[in-house]
Design goal:
alpha/beta, three-stranded mixed β-sheet, 23% helix, 4 helices, 13 strands, 261 residues
């Protein structure tokens, strides 16, 4: 009987400890939670002070035109007022610029730099920039904008622009010059806008058969070393090339050859 009582008492103590720990945990969690106050209609300074008083931080991330909220006041917030968040949470807000009073200029046809200066002089901001290959367009020229010129009821003072991308130089496939005369090919590649580079003479094959009688292996004639002097004889033929036949090349590419006679 004493053993049973001891076990029952131990079980009760364990249950009490678990309930106490659970209650303490809930209290600790709730003490770290706060309710987000309403910041809309306040100035950024007032919103910052109120957020700090509730254990939160505040930051103005964007600015919008608003005919309902006076300029310099908070027009929106996230999280919204009444939401429960952890202490130290950051509340993000948007500041009102008041009704739209500035006209949206037409920056199409201007360079990207000129468009940016034009917008900033009017109190606007350069928004997202995108580039695209536009036929017959001048590189770095603005070919589109959003919102368009003279637009009304614009939400933000940011203007996105589309810029003509630089045109890529024309490319073509490298011809196969193997077996052709170096003198003729040299003229052809210059006419095509390419440049003649290094020309190397391929060494003639060494005699693999018999050697002259009375000549020791050490006295055998060694094959001549390759030379980089560009031969000019019309009988000089191309045996290899770089870039290889079929490679894509553009104007100004340097072409190297290995030749033999």
């Amino acid at each position: 009987m004493n053993v049973f009582r001891l076990l029952s008492l131990a079980l009760v103590l364990i249950i009490v400890a678990l309930v106490s720990a659970f209650t303490t945990m809930r209290l600790a969690i709730h003490t770290r939670e706060v309710t987000v106050p309403k910041l809309i209609g306040l100035t950024p300074g007032e919103a910052d002070q109120l957020a700090a008083a509730n254990g939160l931080t505040f930051d103005v991330e964007r600015r919008f035109y608003s005919p309902q909220i006076a300029p310099g006041k908070i027009v929106s917030q996230m999280p919204e007022a009444g939401a429960t968040v952890r202490r130290g949470w950051q509340v993000r807000g948007a500041e009102s610029l008041g009704p739209q009073r500035v006209s949206i200029p037409n920056v199409i046809g201007q360079s990207s730099r000129a468009a940016e200066i034009n917008l900033r002089e009017r109190g606007l901001e350069l928004g997202q920039q995108a580039m695209a290959h536009i036929p017959d367009a001048i590189p770095d020229q603005v070919v589109g904008q959003d919102p368009p010129a003279d637009a009304h009821e614009v939400s933000t003072p940011k203007i996105g622009i589309l810029i003509a991308a630089p045109t890529d130089p024309p490319a073509f496939l490298m011809p196969d010059f193997t077996g052709q005369s170096l003198a003729v090919v040299s003229h052809d590649i210059e006419q095509a806008g390419l440049h003649l580079g290094k020309v190397t003479m391929r060494a003639p094959p060494a005699n693999s058969g018999t050697r002259p009688s009375g000549t020791s292996p050490s006295q055998a004639t060694a094959p001549p070393a390759a030379t980089t002097a560009p031969p000019t004889s019309g009988t000089t033929l191309i045996v290899s090339q770089s870039p290889a036949p079929g490679d894509k090349v553009t104007a100004g590419t340097v072409v190297n050859f290995e030749v033999s006679k």
